[in-house]
Amino acid sequence: MTLVQSTQPKLQVNGATKVYNTNSGDLLAIDRCSIDIAPGEIVSVVGPSGSGKTTLLWAISGLHGLTSGEILLDGKPVTGPRREIGMVFQDANLLPWRTIDANINFPFEIKGEKPDRDWITTLMHRVGLEGFGARMPRELSGGMQQRVALVRALSFKPSVLLMDEPFGALDSFTREEMNHLVEEIYLDTRTTIVLITHSIEEAIFLSDRVVVMSARPGRIAHVHDVPFARPRSMEIMTTREVFDLTNTIKREIVGDQQSKAAVRRRQAVPVSAPL
Amino acid sequence: MSSADAIPQFNKPAGGNSEVGVTNMSALTAGPGIKSLFDFAIIALVAVVVIGGLELLLTVFAVPQYVLPKPHEIAVALVTDFPLIAPHLGHTLVELFSGFGIGALVGLVLAAVVTQFPFVEKIITPYILLLVTTPMLALVPLLILRFGFGYEPRIIAVALASGPMVMINATTGFRRVDSGKIALARSYGASTLQIFWKIRAPMALPMIFVGLMVGSIFGLLTAVGAEMVGGGFGLGNRLTSYSSMIQMPQFFAVVLILSILGILIYVLFFLLGKKFASWEA
Hints:
The complex is a heterodimer. Chain A is of the alpha/beta class.
């Protein structure tokens, strides 16, 4: 590999463990997850529901803390929200009472700063939303709303972009379009991206590495390299390599779910079986 | 412009008007609205038929005026006696505005406090429930004993009747937390206060307007009721006085003024809601 090894990873997740105290007892959401993410790398996290993907992402973003373990950004521990980290949430998460412009200005308002107009105009142009600034979110389609969310997340020029199932609610064509858009923006900015997704195809198309998590407790079960040059075209999705990788990941996720379900069934039988 | 060209709305069931909000409770938005002169003509015609029919029925069956005055007699009384009624309308408005103003302000502040400190809610909820369920008119005789026949007992009663209504609706509004939107604000390092003003308050606005509307109508009710209990002024006082003198056209003229007042309050909050909370409807 000719890849230049950077002295320091952009993000380090060291033994991240999170326990939620719920009414029905403690819930171990993620268990000793560790991964180093290089600057300019795109890493996707896939896994069954309840595998703690969002918990992991929120910990990286500093939105909540860990029970044990630590997150390092550029070698420094993340203890709260950081301006180097941009976040794209599920379902665009725009504020419906604000215009598109006001939505994009929202982070600047919170920080009491003047928005970087030139950069925002560039971004709006990039995502094809110039001239929509005065509209209300409800006047935009789901894909357009998610593009606004992308602009909002990138407005601070973050060095890390965290995306939490950003395109889950979109139809597959819009989703593909958004994937291309994310790659284009990535090639412009070389932002480090951590993407949580339910779509194995999306994960493979976009990432340098795909992390597969196991269900409850969430552990990093497998990590796969996706060695395709960028910019990628949808053509790669029909290659043998991608086909095999997709199936491997699918088996890992489904297999994990089935084996855990089997354990639950075995444990349940003696209790519920009638005499 | 034809409404067929309206921009398609997303993330909403077809037909709209599904969420709770002041703009959805209204008969004003129930239909497609007045579109043409023809629609307007039909609405006017029905009104004429109803009022004219009532006039005709009362004449044909020779209903005495002290039972139910004819519409034209009420109209005449409204015009000729308005200078006599107007000062009383003024008194009622003073009571309503000051009482409702105090009640709504306290209600909003309490709602905000309760949202930020859930423990406070556990302490004051029983009292708020008591205030909501007890008709505040019951306290008026007591208040009159203490404060006399002036404005005070009425303003206190109006505040006690309208405040809790504003408070429970505003609390419901502040509680409509969208954890995603709060996480969004927090991801930019927003303080609790910023989250309150920039996320919770705007999200609560539709429910706050519902609270203000219900509270103000409760306030009007209580103001008029309190005026009937005692004191020599106010529209409620006119009602008891006109009915005791069997001046039925004047009596109904006052009722009509109260109806119009109620409708105006309703329309005011409807328009405010439409202006500031239309994103939801």
